[in-house]
Design goal:
The chain is mainly alpha-helical and 272 residues long. The protein has one domain. It contains 10 helices and no strands. Helix 1 packs across helix 6, helix 4 packs antiparallel against helix 5 and helix 4 packs parallel to helix 10. The longest helix has 35 residues. 37% of the residues are buried.
Length: 272
């Protein structure tokens, strides 16, 4: 067995394990925003792994068909992230949720940077879809952007020193997120060390992860963005979600058109 399927299987296992208690096992009792994000993100990761599998097994027809389906999926992915921003604001306004009260500013900034990262990575994947290494690098790097979310939950469940046993341990959420991001950066470094310039798309993803680490770390426990969170909480959910959907749709359209082959003008026949 090669390294690639092992890494892909491990990624799926981390996602399932990390989100099992809070989403998969409680799917009937979670807010609709969790479904909007969870379903779209799960399909996206599955799609990226399917793209990797079809390319390595030279199933290029299926690869192209699955790739085109991502044009329709991407708006739902960004709309789902916007739904989680909406939920964060709604929770701050409506309920005394200690986690979002403590880390609401960090979460919103982290999600905003995640949306920016997805837009940049996917746009460039579409733009360079005729260049195999560049295209595949950008697509394969997209799951890294929010991989800290399930992995940090695993750390909070089981890692000594980071495990949460009660309300007094909630402050460990942010260190777990930062450690999970550090692991992502270590993976990016290993990929780049192995493939060098062919892995430059992973460096772009790594840049966004560094920005998330710095911003979320600085804003941890900060009430700086609470006015923004309250404004989001009082905003109709449809406005925020449809804005995210529109950003995703615009990215699909712009990236697809940017990657089209330039038309070569036909030679003009000269009169005799």
């Amino acid at each position: 067995m090669t390294v690639r399927p092992v890494v892909e299987s491990l990624a799926l296992a981390v996602i399932v394990a990390g989100f099992w208690p809070s989403y998969f096992a409680a799917s009937g009792n979670v807010p609709w925003q969790f479904h909007a994000h969870g379903i779209a993100a799960s399909i996206w990761v599955t799609m990226v792994l399917a793209q990797s599998w079809t390319a390595h097994h030279k199933q290029f027809g299926i690869h192209a068909a699955v790739g085109k389906s991502s044009l329709l999926l991407f708006p739902f992915l960004i709309g789902g992230l916007a739904a989680i921003i909406d939920l964060t604001g709604k929770t701050v306004v409506a309920t005394p949720d200690p986690v979002r009260t403590m880390f609401g500013s960090s979460f919103v900034v982290g999600l905003g940077l995640a949306i920016a990262a997805y837009v940049v990575l996917y746009y460039r994947a579409l733009k360079y879809r005729r260049k195999v290494w560049i295209h595949s690098g950008y697509m394969l790097s997209t799951p890294l952007i929010l991989f800290e979310s399930p992995f940090s939950r695993i750390l909070n469940m089981a890692m000594p020193g980071l495990a949460i046993r009660g309300p007094d341990d909630l402050h460990l959420i942010m260190p777990s997120i930062l450690w999970a991001m550090a692991l992502e950066l270590a993976f990016v470094a290993l990929v780049w060390w192995k493939y060098r310039e062919k892995a430059n798309p992973f460096l772009v993803a790594g840049g966004f992860i560094v920005a998330q680490m710095v911003a979320m770390g600085v804003l941890a426990y900060s009430p700086l963005l609470m006015p923004l969170l309250r404004a989001i909480g009082n905003m109709p959910s449809a406005v925020l979600v449809m804005t995210g959907f529109a950003i995703g749709a615009a990215t699909s359209w712009a990236g697809w058109n940017a990657g089209k082959r330039a038309l070569v003008p036909a030679p003009v026949a000269q009169a005799v």
